[in-house]
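Troubleshooting: if your tokenizer reports a length mismatch, compare your output against this known-good record of 422 residues.
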Amino acid sequence: MAIADEQTEPKKPDPYAALRHRNFRKFFLAALASNSGSWLQAIAIPYIMYEMTGSGAWVGISVFSLLLPMAIMGPWAGPLADRLPRRTIVMVAQTIQAFIAFSYAIFWWAGIREPLAYIGLSIVFGIVNGFGMPAWQAYVSDLVPRDALQNAITLNSLQFNAARAIGPSIGGVVLALFGPAWCFAGNAVSFFAVVLTLLSLPPTPPGAIAESGEKPLTQFRLGMAYARDDPAILTGYFAAALVAVCGGTLVQVHLVLFAEDVFAVSEGYYGILVSAFGLGAIMMAPWLMRRAPMYPPSRVLVAGLLFYGVGELILTSTSIYVIGLVGTLIAGCSHITMATTTNSALQLHVTEAMRGRVMAMYLMVLTVGMPMGAIIQGPLSDAFGVRVVVSFMGAMLIAGAFWLATTGRAAHFDRDLPLAVD
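Known-good structure output:
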């Protein structure tokens, strides 16, 4: 009997399986450096917009102008990620973004204080980022074997969120001591960490549909039909939309308003507040790598949404900075839980030929949801106060968790999770 129990006991996953592959390890470290730099820019933009205008609406517009172009690129970027070598796409996008980041710095050093000038740069930056992100997401599968893919996806989410802790911490100091231009310049330099690393990695072959004569939009429509017929993918898109609208705007729009209007703290403390979100993700990562794979994905999905809402409600319940940090920390724990669960379920389920397009649509959901939330919630924060708006968003996240659980929608993640056959 003991022998039978030993044979049926589930094997615990290796939390560092993907890092044992040299190419993924190099990419992981370079991406961590680059995304940390990106957060220097991410905290500088809402700060300068608020400094120039004193308006939450303008902060929302700055996020809208950055993220919506990313979504618009999806119908072209997704098929390209399934057609062209993904390493090449990422290298080109990262190089162009470096020059745009330098342009932000040059504008500020030149004394340009016109919000529309920075909005224009954000639109171009968003277009280029939208071109590269589906390839970035799908490129992870080119660096590891299939049995290490879920761990690679988790670690990829970890480095995005670790950067969310590291970057704002550094950015808050740089912003306070040297000004926003140096945040932009630091981000520009960080892009070359990925470019140089990619140059050292083996070239990737053309994508699975490289020989297809169909136009990109036709290929994208085929991807939409594929996703529409799969309840697991639709569940992932719904969860992503809910988080984008009700949670993604927290860091992009609301935390600068909390720092300025609720907690009345300096730039450095604003950076720490943003860092708490990323720190929560880092704290959650060991559990996600070791324990989460042993639970049904539906339970992890529902719990992530539920606690995301709870974290936002804790943040809005107080004017005490430390308690606000705790709420932001909980939201950060939940964010990586949601990102990892949905991303893993999607990537493990799709065929290789559809990977770029399914991930492009996933990114479109995120990058439409966040700017739409920002453009609406920024003016609402001006009219009713940021605490009222974020409280409502937290309540929506909790309601979404209960809806997924009670309707059985979350269970699609469990039934459809087995690896797809290419």
